[in-house]
Amino acid sequence: MSILQTIGLSKTYGEGDVSVRALEEVSLSIETGEFVSVMGPSGSGKSTLLNILGCLDRPSAGRYLLDSVDVSQMDRAELARIRNERIGFVFQSYNLLPRTSALKNVVAPLLYSRNHGRTKDEKLAIARQAMESVGLGDRLEHQPQQLSGGQQQRVAIARAFVTDPAFILADEPTGNLDSQTGQEILSLLAGLHRQGRTILVITHSEEIAALTDRTIRLRDGRVERIVRNWSNSDTQAVDEVRNGSR
Question: Of 194, 190, 128, 125, which is closest to residue 155 (Cα–Cα)?
Answer without folding.
Answer: 128
